[in-house]
Amino acid sequence: xxxxxxxxKRQQVDVSSDTPLLWVLRENLGMTGTKFGCGxxxxxxxxxxxxxxxxxxxxxxVASVSGKKITTIEGLSANASHPIQKAWIAEDVPQCGYCQxxxxxxxxxxxxxxxxxxxxxxxxxxxxxxCRCGTYQRIRRAIHxxxxxxxxxxxx
Amino acid sequence: xxxIINLSRRGFLKAGIAGGGLVLGLYLPASRRLxxxxxxxxEQFSLTPLVRxxxxxxxxxxxxxxxxxxxxxxSVPMIIADELEADWSKVRFQQAPADPAFGDPERxxxxxxxxxxxxxxxxxxxxxxxxxxxxxxxxxxAKEWGVPVEECRAEQSVVIHQPxxxxxxxxxxxxxxxxxxxxxxPKLKSPEEFRFIGKxxxxxxxxxxxxxxxxxxxxxxxxxMLIATVQRCPVFGGKVASFDATKAKAVKGVRHVVQIxxxxxxxxxxxxxxxxxxxxxRITWDEGPNGQQSSAxxxxxxxxxxxxxxxxxxxxxxxxxxxxxxxxxxEAVYEVPFLAHATMExxxxxxxxxxxxxxxxxxxxxxxxxxxxxxxxxxxxPEAVKVNTMMLGGGFGRRGQQDFVADAVETSKAVNAPxxxxxxxxxxxxxxxxxxxxxxxxxxxxxxxxxxxxxxxxIVGPSISAERGQKLENGIxxxxxxxxxxxxxxxxxxxxxxxxxxxxxxVGVWRSVGASQNAFITESFIDELAAAAGKDPFEFRRGLLNxxxxxxxxxxxxxxxxxxxxxxxxxxxRGIAVAFSYASYAAEVAEISIAKDGKVRVHRVVCAIDCGVxxxxxxxxxxxxxxxxxxxxxxxxGAITIDKGRVQQSNFHDYPVLRINEMPVVEVHIAPSKAAxxxxxxxxxxxxxxxxxxxxxxxTGKRIRKLPIRPEELQSS
Lengths: 156, 717
Known about the structure:
Chain A has helices spanning 21-28, 73-76, 83-90, 100-113, 119-126, 136-152; strands spanning 2-6, 9-13, 47-50, 53-56, 69-71. Chain A is an alpha+beta fold. Chain A starts with a strand and ends with a helix. Chain B folds into three domains: 3-210, Aldehyde Oxidoreductase, domain 4 (2-Layer Sandwich); 217-288 and 347-422, 2-Layer Sandwich (Aldehyde Oxidoreductase, domain 4), CATH 3.30.365; 295-338 and 434-713, Aldehyde Oxidoreductase, domain 4, CATH 3.30.365. Chain B is of the alpha+beta class.
């Protein structure tokens, strides 16, 4: 048994220690918002937060995060009310939507680190997240919008 | 023509769509159905509604087309709700199961999503359903009040008796309207009366896509479900000769290892166990006839083949003798590679084959084909195969195929349990149906004023149609010559030929299909002619488009918005291209710079699109943005290469795609048009590669005749 803390809740999972966190989240805990895209940390679809920092759950053995705090898209807000999610809705960012959980997790971590990111900051923080539908321009706009919302403080 | 039918009283309880109210659907008479659909009973046709207005006033639109990012799950509700005069806040969508009721009447009832076709095929049908519902609700209210129908109107899900101001809501009227006959010819609104069509409307699926709740095929969970992954022969066309599953079965969590038609499948309690079990398999392959195939050999075969004439796709006057007599000739060879779709969600499918029926959960672009696949493998009639369409994590043509469906149905049948088959990214990259690689010989003649007098284009390549088993009429695969046989320029002598060569690499439709490669080739070559004539590439094209006014319109619009001809900052250059595909016209101007190491940076793309009447302008813009990114990924990086019959690429590290730090500013301008609805999913792709390649020529004088663009050829010292 391996113990992990996901979205504030302590969970015990009976899996081999090398199982990637991604599959534990999806198959053992039923949290399917975190997506499988490449399996080798190339696309970012599996991004979650580990102690607030974005990581690729597809290459993260579950044993390595035992006892640490994991946040997934399901834990970002109860009802899509995080400023990033509101900004994503306002810009109608998603097309197929498959990469967007990962995009949102990367973007939300960026805004914690840099509350007012420049375009260059966005390029650096978001270059690990692929979107085949090509929503990058809207992602950029939505991040700036979310930053403005958070600066105003009214979007919580 | 499909008939609108009132399904309100037809026993929906058994179809699970109960709840009363007014329920309307479409019925396609048997005489119009394709064979595959015609085997199904009439009852099947009457089970699935298109729109239901409940006693609670909720309007549910059941969308038969697959939502793969293009916004159809919002556009169909917009169309129906507009004619219905529904209150948008009460409108919901549901993804439909496979059911011929959702088939395209223009295509024999086939239910599939592709060819940028949904709205251009179905717009009027959906409008009629909405209008019929509105008239029935108004009639029900008029009866209730004992007043003439003409005194009543509908607005925001309420019928109003104008003289008295009395009101009844759609919820109050739904049960009564359900008792009325369907009007034969419901009156459609005039475009000036549209409330949603042509207006920006937020997508209905966005909230679930930002919260992780949207359910894709890979997210399906069925009680008792096992997870499987398939080891396929790395060589196309190869087969399992023998295998040893001893070590695979020893992996904890592995339940079954069986051979299916695509390879050896490992079935386990989890994906990780299945993957480890698969890695422990020992398989001897019979590689079949393609074990020595390579990209170099394919190019050589194509080049050799291109020396001889081939079947003619289009011929105007006499290109050959004009070329023979011409004072000025331009000749070039263009090559494009195989391309993978690389949808973000790898292929997957879940199936449960039971004693007498089969259920499938899948993100598919082809429900009719999925049902047929299930029926073929199980031996059940199509009605016994239930297809649950899930959200698609990208389609681009790949999810019209049936290979991943067959994996799941065969495996479930073999192990007698519900099974989800998940492809790895490597499986997805190496076992696709690729955009065909082609080899093109082009020749043109110019007169002494620089006007083109002849154009000859010979295409050598695989055939999507022939390799699907379709017969090629006169040797021509229409999808392989689209964008080539129909070039819009007024050139009096013209001949386009296509020579089919099957090289053993599976090919399929890839976002914008033939136009994706042919626009690159023809729009680059026309640029070569402009250069040979010493003319501006925009003006040169413009002068040849006097009988192709919609091409000319978008070309001019893109040029104007891009500031064609105005000064650019040092080091920046422009290229332009225009293309027709899927009943729409798109022109793009790309603005680029080239670094010393030869790396091309696209800074800005200005796109003009004439897609006729359109439903959701913001989603037209989104599809243009997306098509430009898809086209740019391919132009800069896209290549699937073959060695020893195997794909050499495996994942995003060696099949790179555009990332946000490389994203150009994209500006989209929609040409006002009253023409019939055109497609929007694909038309932005074709002009992108030539616009960029032509900008590279403007920058360097070097012509890109082979994709992807190779920085090593553009280095400056």
